[in-house]
Fold this sequence. Notes:
Largest sheet: 5 strands, mixed
Number of strands: 12
Number of helices: 8
Bound molecules: dinuclear copper ion
Low-confidence stretches: 12-19
Amino acid sequence: xxxxxxxxxxxxxxxxxxxxxxxxxxxxxxxxxxxxxxxxxxxxxxxxxxxxxxxxxxxxxxxxxxxxxxxxxxxxxxxxxxxxxxxxxxxxxxxxxxxxxxxxxxxxxxxxxxxxxxxxxxxxxxxxxxxxxxxxxxxxxxxxxxxxxxxxxxxxxxxxxxxxxxxxxxxxxxxxxxxxxxxxxxxxxxxxxxxxxxxxxxxxxxxxxxxxxxxxxxxxxxxxxxxxxxxxxxxxxxxxxxxxxxxxxxxxxxxxxxxxxxxxxxxxxxxxxxxxxxxxxxxxxxxxxxxxxxxxxxxxxxxxxxxxxxxxxxxxxxxxxxxxxxxxxxxxxxxx
Length: 336
Ligand code: CUA
């Protein structure tokens, strides 16, 4: 069973990635399109070089044995020019072309200078191993805080400030842009744009510890109207429990350890260690998009987070009995 799982898991990941548009070769916006043009240019250039080399090798290999002896020995003055041309001039010319193409590409992304004077719309802070997402506003009461799922309006550029709380992470949504690092003590800026509504999957691209591979983020591009509705809803306080079970769940959340690490707006739970859960039920997935957001996964995560994701800060909350767990999860699933 184990070897099968080892093979099928990466395959599944590739398939999933395909469904969610996680590929720099299927660009969904202007920056990614520019990068994908560069990718294709470099890929095709090196395929051509490889083909030429294989043809030369095949020609040499297919020469009759006797004729090889006719090649003048190098120390007799022959062959040096081939070393200069084939070993230096041609590779230098090709690498110079790639370098210039790369420089031209970089100049099209004014990541730091010009943009830093305008405030960003979103600030993303990397944590081991999840993404804190703050929707900024000059009016603090209009700010919104969520995690692991970024919503943006389709069809226009969105500036995002990138920061880190612990180690270096890297923001990478291949269908929308290249990689930009999140570095402790520094703000980096990225400008992304999705032309069409859709879900674009991204990933931390800088090794940041045990669960680096499970630090996934989703960019949900929506029509401007839908986006405004979504943002308006995220700004609202978490909704109140609708029945007795959910009320029990809320009490458990705020009086046991949960509220020390998580925030649910409008309640006593105001922790800032873990993701903000005020609108958890509106998100597609949990555990930094590792598991679909459903009853089974949510229950398993509360009780056995450390088995599902070894190394996470979230402890195994085994103190809840069955009824308590059901109440807690019912409350969390109510937080649209
Ligand atoms: Cu965060 Cu890798």
